[in-house]
Amino acid sequence: MGIIHINKLKPGMVLDEAVKDISGRLLLKKGKNIQSAHIRIFKIWGVTEVNIRGNNGSKNTSDGNLDPDKIAKIKDNTQNLFRHADLEHPALKEIFRISVEFRSQYSFPEKEKQVDLATTESKQDTGNHNFLQELNQGNITLPEVPSIVFELNEVIANPLSSAEDIAQVVHRSPSLTALLLKIVNSPFYGFPSKIDKISLAVTLIGTREISGLALGISVISLFNNIPKEILSMHSFLRHSLACGIISRILAAHKGLPQTEQLFVSGLLHDLGRLILYSYFPEESLNILSRARSTNMLLYLQENDSLGCNHTHIVKQLLQQWKLPMVLENNVFFHHDPCEAPQPVPAILVHLADIMTNGLGIGTSGERFVPPLDNKAWDSLGLSPSCFDIVVKQATHQFFALESMLEI
User: Fold this and answer.
1) At what angle do helices 90-105 and 343-359 cross, to 10 degrees?
2) What is the distance between the alpha carbons of residues 156 and 197, in angstroms, rounded to a whole number?
3) How far is Cα 123 from Cα 87, in angstroms, rounded to an integer?
4) 189/194 Cα distance (integer angstroms)
5) CA distance 27 to 127
6) Residue 5 φ then ψ, to 5°
7) pTM score
8) How far is the C-alpha of 291 from the C-alpha of 301, rounded, in Å?
9) Which domains does the chain have, with CATH numbers?
10) Average pLDDT over residues 372-381
11) Do the beta carbons of residue 335 and residue 311 sit within 8 Å?
12) Are 354 and 93 in contact (CB under 8 A)?
């Protein structure tokens, strides 16, 4: 019996020990021949090594033959991005280590145009503007809820909703139907046979889970007109998607039910910024410019300039649209998770946002890694040792979904 790294597996090898995921779920029985599809599923669920018959017993690892100067430069750049984080904290120290390793292995060229600090300051100063007060007084008009979002919300709110009820709503949008079927047939779920009906997807994944997934995709697809001089929508979507995936995987490690709810929360966590960029581009340019020139965290600069930040804005929208309270809480409290009525899911989105910023997958405009809420971390009961597996799982799921969410 020998141990071999997942990257060295080849189709036709025979397992000498059953392969299970982090939760103990059986992925492939002992004695089975490994196929390409099995290797892909192993990677998705974070399996890094398996026991193979006839192997010489040596443990293979990745080569890691990277230029030391390149690694040192990446480490210095990454350390600058963690300037607001306490790198002596065990969780952040591990996230930093993984981030350096990840950035050394993967290159994500951003499609965004960098803000020119010399030219973006508006003639109209928006500093100390009480944006929140104007929102509360109804002086700022937010978009109305689209019919499909309203109908999906009605289905989610009804505990008696059936798979057919959900399928009927989803089928009213052919593009949403096609996208959901692509997702459920991707390695993100790893079903052994093709799913060709939304009603079957609902049966397999769950009523609330598929409804929440459809709801999250429908909401974020409404805000696809960010001015290119502010940020690319492609980059924003990648950040949101990665945060949703990591939130979902962290929820699975924590043993929470309805992990799709965390996926949607992570997907929508920075929706307030999307509203700002789309509807208030001049104010947004000012805020981005000031944050970058002062090396200030973006949400703190939002507070200084607007009297609130992106979480307050999305809270108003989600309340106006009467979306599920759990989504509202997870999104609104992702920078202050201990204040949430149900803190654990909000903490997971908080942690996922930190990890996504550390890895550098896309951006919502924030340059730096947000600080970790130490009290929230202490109450979570997770070990930093799980982060390596979480990132491996998230990386494969991200690549499986990225091309499908070109909203």
Assistant:
1) 40
2) 19
3) 39
4) 11
5) 55
6) -70, 150
7) 0.78
8) 6
9) 2-52 (3.90.105.10), 131-143+222-402 (1.10.3210.10)
10) 95
11) yes
12) no
